[in-house]
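Design request, tokens follow.
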């Protein structure tokens, strides 16, 4: 976002923003088949690599043969149960999965995994009691059950990441050709929301608001917008880095992708903040490298400098992230407030002809539909055929993030982005007074965040379009 925020408006917001936030759900607990009180109606073996712990249960090949786990739940409620197994045959090894004696899933399929060393995970939800529970996997055919490695059990919370969240479905993303691709190497489009600056609107990012973003808005992605100047990161690197850590965990708990946005803005030369960026991204990437949902955006909106200067910055920051997190997608800002140079009278050709020398990268494009007409739209369209593009910010109003909405033009952009599978993130998920902040003033921190009662017109419009069902390929 390119405008400057007036510090005088911010006092109360900053104070509220320090309030601690709690995790949304309990982390899963793992129960290994080889550890008592688990029971294995057969032998504990260790001859097929890839298992966790010290072995797995190879139950007898007979109908009724079983593996049984005793699991603890801190509270009664719905549990997500993930069963790790291998079946080196090509024949299904169906089993009844029971919780405390009642069948939760009858003759549940445990299909061939390709090899006894190829372990897969099957996930189901079932109700558990507070305290001890038994989970029993009992074969319904004479072949007995598949080999069983462990169960992960996760109880409580609002939206445990089961099999249906955007991250559960798509897994680690990568760039393929000009597209963003999922774990099945198929192009996908992510749609979601950007936060406002964490120095001003952290109080809009809490358990209830992020539950609403994940469950009511059905967003695929949260962009975590951390300004560097303008009372941001440079004033207290520890505080802001910890806020980003926290928001990454909250997005992860809800199965959303998290874009870590280094929101450099003024000065417009990203090299001004290079040393800070190296420190910040090294810590973020080393802490979260094992997650599959982190996307790095290394320069929000460069301005006043040439593409070659920006490109030089990218060449220096990319290896710093890759040293920690080798497989993450990295998003690269472009000239003139990430307009691919158009706002300086240039065009996408400067990037197309002189791309950044790295793989698994995408270029960012920002637009504000009431200011940026067909010249910008056509630039995005042409660019997306040549280089990987990601719209990490757009608004339905003017480039200030305020003023009247142009929904007709906005829809043209959205149609183009749907057609070309260009991922997009809308600015912004806060209750700032401007028309582009989706909530009416005073909504944060207590809501109401779900539904439309506290949404401005732009919020109603964009929620409808974030909510449209995803169509992620799963094979
Ligand atoms: C093989 C394999 C075992 C497996 C068994 C089975 O013997 O090595 O790990 O349990 O087949 O068919 O169940």
């Amino acid at each position: 976002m390119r405008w400057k925020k007036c510090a005088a408006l911010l006092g109360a917001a900053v104070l509220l923003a320090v309030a601690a936030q709690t995790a949304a759900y309990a982390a899963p607990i793992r129960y290994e088949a080889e550890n008592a009180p688990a029971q294995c109606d057969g032998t504990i073996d260790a001859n097929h690599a890839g298992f966790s712990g010290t072995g797995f249960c190879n139950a007898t090949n007979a109908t009724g043969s079983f593996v049984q786990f005793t699991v603890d739940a801190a509270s009664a409620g719905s549990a997500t149960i993930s069963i790790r197994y291998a079946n080196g045959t090509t024949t299904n090894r169906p089993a009844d999965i029971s919780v405390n004696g009642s069948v939760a899933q009858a003759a549940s399929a445990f299909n061939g995994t390709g090899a006894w060393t190829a372990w897969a995970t099957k996930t189901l939800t079932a109700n558990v009691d507070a305290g001890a529970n038994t989970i029993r996997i009992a074969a319904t055919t004479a072949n007995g059950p598949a080999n069983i490695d462990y169960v992960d059990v996760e109880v409580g919370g609002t939206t445990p990441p089961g099999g249906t969240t955007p991250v559960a479905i798509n897994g680690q993303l990568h760039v393929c050709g000009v597209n963003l691709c999922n774990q099945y190497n198929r192009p996908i489009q992510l749609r979601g929301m950007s936060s406002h600056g964490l120095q001003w609107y952290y109080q809009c990012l809490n358990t209830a608001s992020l539950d609403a973003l994940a469950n009511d808005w059905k967003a695929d992605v949260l962009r975590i917008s951390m300004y560097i100047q303008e009372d941001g990161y440079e004033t207290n690197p520890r505080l802001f880095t910890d806020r980003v850590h926290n928001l990454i965990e909250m997005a992860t708990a809800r199965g959303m992708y998290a874009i870590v946005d280094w929101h450099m803005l003024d000065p417009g030369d990203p090299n001004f903040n290079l040393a800070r960026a190296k420190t910040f991204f090294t810590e973020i990437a080393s802490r979260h490298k094992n997650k599959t949902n982190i996307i790095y955006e290394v320069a929000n909106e460069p301005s006043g400098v040439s593409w070659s200067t920006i490109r030089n910055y990218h060449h220096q920051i990319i290896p710093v992230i890759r040293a920690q997190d080798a497989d993450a997608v990295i998003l690269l800002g472009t000239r003139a407030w990430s307009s691919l140079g158009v706002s300086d009278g240039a065009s996408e050709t400067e990037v197309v002809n002189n791309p950044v020398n790295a793989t698994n990268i995408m270029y960012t494009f920002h637009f504000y539909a009431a200011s940026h007409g067909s010249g910008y739209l056509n630039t995005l369209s042409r660019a997306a055929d040549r280089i990987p593009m990601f719209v990490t910010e757009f608004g339905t109003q003017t480039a200030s993030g305020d003023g009247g909405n142009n929904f007709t033009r906005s829809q043209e952009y959205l149609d183009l982005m749907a057609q070309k599978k260009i991922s997009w993130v809308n600015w912004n998920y806060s209750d700032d007074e401007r028309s582009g902040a989706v909530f009416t003033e005073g909504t944060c921190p207590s809501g109401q965040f779900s539904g439309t009662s506290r949404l401005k017109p732009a919020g109603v419009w964009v929620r409808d379009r974030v909510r449209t069902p995803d169509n992620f390929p799963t094979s």
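Comment from the thread starter after seeing the answer: thanks! The longest strand covers residues 77-86.
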